[in-house]
Write a structure and sequence with these properties.
357 residues, 15% strand, 14 strands, 4-stranded antiparallel sheet
Length: 357
Amino acid sequence: MRILLLEDEEAIRGFIRINLKRNGMDVTEAEDGETALALAEAASPPFDVALLDVMLPTISGFEVCEQLRARFPRMGIIMLTAKSQEEDKIRGLELGADDYVQKPFSPGELIARLHSLNRRMMPGGLSWPEAAGSEQRSSGPEALVADQQSDALGQIIGQNPANGQVTGQNAPSGQTSGQTSGQTSGQNRDQTQNQAQEQGHESRSSIPDSDVLPASSSGDIGSHSPANAGNESTGQFSSLSASAGNQPKAKALPGELCSGPFRLSAAERRLWKRDNEIVLTPTEWTLVMLLMERVGEGLSRDAILDAVWGRHFIGDLKIVDVNIRRIRQKIEDAPSEPQYIETLWGFGYRWKRSEQQ
């Protein structure tokens, strides 16, 4: 995995570089936004993932994120920030970031996030059984890497010797990485949630629905009662076809999903609407594939978070809503009145099943 690392503090940059290289990653460093953008333009092939610090001396990490996303829509982007303000996290996601890691963070957490993002970028992405199987996730690369990184490198500059975390200049050493995100199944997530709640963080289930999604990104209001409960998708690709109103149906080829005017290719990681390609980020693409595979079925925010970001993710549940909002801006004719991705208030989302499907 080829990484572009943008961090202005040399000690932290060196600490991250050492840990990434120990895990077999190729790291190119930049200490300011202008250098990072120049390196990205010159790279051939493009970098797989950009790790961007937010607080920089000249142009901010947000500006770099926005420019990289416009120039390299399929590049993975993770924001590194010492800021705990919710609006900063949401801003980064809305500008195109796939994920964020809040300082202080452990090397294991960062490596796990990178592996999770890398899987979303690979051909085929994550099918529902692979992503949602708790046994597979708990024993996957993230858990292994986290175990390997448990012995913190206390002698390396930029690490808090007490807890093995990167702290950064503006981050208190006792702060945990991100907010917890509520009730899920599985022993690993439950243990993490309990630890975080003991430290006073907000759980997923405590987030009011009115605070989760901006009004402009709300969808159709409906209850969670999928009509296809007895005929659920197995999570494998099939030639599904649907019709949204009087719109022409897309014709599925082997290894593709079709729904209404949409055609999704797993092998090519591409999405078309009425033969016009819609360019998605790695996270957006994986999320669309997940919803299309489970057409007509309501998926909770927790289930989506586990499937797309992985069980290791400890962060704000709003990351799901922000990505849904970004997807709607790209696929809906009227994003404020979505036809394809419905909001199930107090629960999650579903890809709408048409009357003819």
